[in-house]
Design goal:
The protein is α+β, with helices and mostly antiparallel strands. The protein contains six helices and four strands, in the order E-E-E-E-H-H-H-H-H-H. Helix 1 crosses helix 3 and helix 4 packs antiparallel against helix 5. The two termini are about 40 Å apart.
Length: about 150
């Protein structure tokens, strides 16, 4: 599983390009164009960091390479969030993450499936009877949540 690589915000003023720099102080990151502050976010606010750096790239203010070098984030991460910006705009960074749907192997379905398995039914037949994919039942058997009837 990939590990999240956070941006590096060193103390003091750090140049991104000739015109753009950032400064971290007291848990805030402030971006400057020349001497004028243009944006700020909390040091731990990844969503705002991703949104703002993606906007800078989209408007041609900086290159992807500049963000990679200034903050120490992987190029693949910068490209991933450019795609979010291109497809969903700034709001895409603040949407709640998608969650998986409710489990199909509810306690009632699991109980019915186990009863059928205990009677010696095959996984494909149990799958049709309870309305759950056979793959789901096989996964539950491998994980020990269900067990197959063993013929002697």
């Amino acid at each position: 599983m990939p590990q999240l690589q956070l941006p590096m915000f060193p103390d003091g003023l750090t140049s991104i390009t000739e015109d753009l720099a950032f400064h971290r102080e007291d848990g805030k990151v402030v971006y400057f164009h020349g001497l004028m502050p243009v944006f700020q976010h909390g040091e731990k606010d990844l969503r705002s960091f991703r949104m703002f750096t993606s906007q800078l790239i989209a408007h041609g203010t900086v290159r992807q390479r500049d963000i990679v070098q200034a903050f120490g984030v992987p190029l693949a991460t910068v490209k991933r969030y450019m795609k979010v910006h291109r497809e969903q705009g700034a709001a895409g960074f603040y949407r709640p993450p998608r969650r998986r749907s409710a489990s199909v192997l509810t306690p009632e379905v699991k109980q019915r499936a186990q009863a059928l398995l205990d009677e010696g039914e095959s996984v494909p037949k149990v799958s049709l009877a309870v309305g759950v994919a056979g793959n789901t039942l096989h996964k539950a058997i491998r994980a020990g949540r269900l067990h197959e009837f063993k013929k002697n």
